Structures are given as C-alpha cells and as structure tokens.
Amino acid sequence: MSADYLASLNTAGIFSRAELYDEIEESRGDLSEANFKKILQKLLTSGELLRVGRNAYSVAAGRKNYVYEYSSVSRKVAEYMEQNNPYLDFVIMELVQLNEFVNHQIAHNMYFLYVEGDYGEYIFDSLKSMFPGKVLLYPDEQTFHRYWCEDVIVIERLVSQAPKDRRMKWHTRVEKLMVDMLADPLLKSTVSESEYPSIYEGIFDKYAVDESSLLRYAGRRGVKAGLLDFIASQTDVNLRTVGVHAQQG
Fold first, then answer.
1. Which of 24, 76, 87, 182 has the fewest beta carbons under 10 Å from its own?
2. CA 22 to CA 15: how far, in whole Å?
3. Are residues 107 and 23 in the same domain?
C-alpha cells in the first residue's frame, strides 16, 4: 500500500528518485521501471508526493502545489497574449496574490506582466488601447509611483530561467514570487518588508517549494546570498535541501 512506503519516506524528509524506487519495490515486490514511472506520476498528480528540488522529493504532509485563481483582467491579458503572440514567453503576477500571506491586506490590485526579451514595447503598444491610461512600460520607481493607479498593468522583462508553471505557462510559480519580492525594486517599494517573514513562512508551511528552482532563480537575479541570509536570520523556515544546494553557486 502507498501509505506504507510514504509513511516510511516521510520520516526521511528529503529523498531521491532511487530511494523512492527502493521503498516502493520493497513494499510491492518486483518493480519495473515503466510501472515505477506510472506510480511516481500518479503520486505527483494526486499531491501525495511533492518535487522539492532536482532529484529531490518529499511526502506532502499537508502541503500542496501552489495555485492561484487569477482575475478577469489577468485572464483577458493572457488570452490576448496567447492568441496574438503564441510563441512569446510571458508570466503574470497580481499584487493581491500576496493577500493570502500578509497581515495587512492589499486593497488595490495591480498586475505585473513579465515579457521575454525586448518585446515589451510591442506589447505595450497593443495593450494600451485595451487598457487606456493603465499600462506602464519598464517604469523606474519614481515613474511607477507617479503614474500608479488601481489595476495598472506594469510591463517588465522576464528574466531568463524564471521558474515556469507546469500546468499553465503564464501563471506565477511560487518560487518566482518569493525571489521577485527580494529582487524587483517595484515590488519592494509596494509591499512592506516587515511582511516578508510571514509571507515566506506561510508559503513554506502551506505549499511545496522547489528549492532547487528557488535558489537557481535567485542566483540568476543576483539575490541568492541575500535570500539565504533572509531565510536563516528572519524566518523559522528550514530549507529541506540546504545541505545540497545552499553552498552551491
């Protein structure tokens, strides 16, 4: 039974694919690679098992994969992007996504549209007719706060190697959200940094975090050392894969 080997693995904390294979084989008897792949996919799909890093898994133990219900504005932008720019990578984040984790609720929403390469200006020209007066292109902090309005859409560059959602490519992965909070000047100027510890603790407590993806993207954005220091000094979070990844890069 899956409960048997999952209970055994839960005490291990983090385990590799090979260790999972050995536990399942011991529980079920002879196990082919094909059957193992089916079982692994079923466990990941059901949420019983979580991928928390490169070749690193963990029993869910109450945690789940991050999902956010986007607003009609985000869906309208995403629909336009997918229909008119099907090969262009983009990600959308809503500021109120953070309300799940902050003590002081964010009353006014805004949208961050991250677009790959130098296509931002092209997208800006297209969206400004759909949302007149509510689209900003690559604003600095001063411009951002001067022209901010409710439901403003901020176009920013999508950093390469940003974590991609496996279900819907334009959804914001929780790992990207956490790193951007530390790396994006506009986000830092919008959300009180006193809220950051509770945001991080809430995310780690409730959701599966791919720590390899988190640290890799933090390194790409130049905030890996700061992220590790922040987690260690200001939160109660214990990175499950820190022994493997925290000293890399």
1. 87
2. 11
3. no
List Cα–Cα distances, 46 to 28, 63, 84, 193, 225, in angstroms.
Answer: 19, 12, 34, 35, 34
220 touches 176 (CB < 8 A): no
Do 115 and 90 meet the contact criterion of CB atoms below 8 Å apart? yes
Q: Which of 138, 148, 76, 136 is nearest to 109 (CA)?
A: 148
Whether residues 191 and 165 share a domain: the answer is yes
pLDDT at 112: 97
| Radius of gyration of the chain measured on its C-alpha atoms | 20
In one-letter notation, the amino acid at residue 61 is A
Does 64 fall in a domain? Answer: no
Count Cβ atoms below 10 Å from residue 61 Cβ, excluding itself. Answer: 10
Strands (E), 32-123: 49-53, 56-59, 90-94, 111-115
Q: Does 138 share its domain with 214?
A: yes
Enter the pTM of the model.
0.81
Give residue 76's Cα distance to chain centre: 21
Per-residue pLDDT reduced to its tens digit, 100-153: 999 889 999 999 999 999 999 999 999 999 999 999 999 999 999 999 899 999
Handedness of CA 48, 49, 52, 58 (dihedral sign): positive
Query: Do 82 and 193 lie in a common domain?
Result: yes
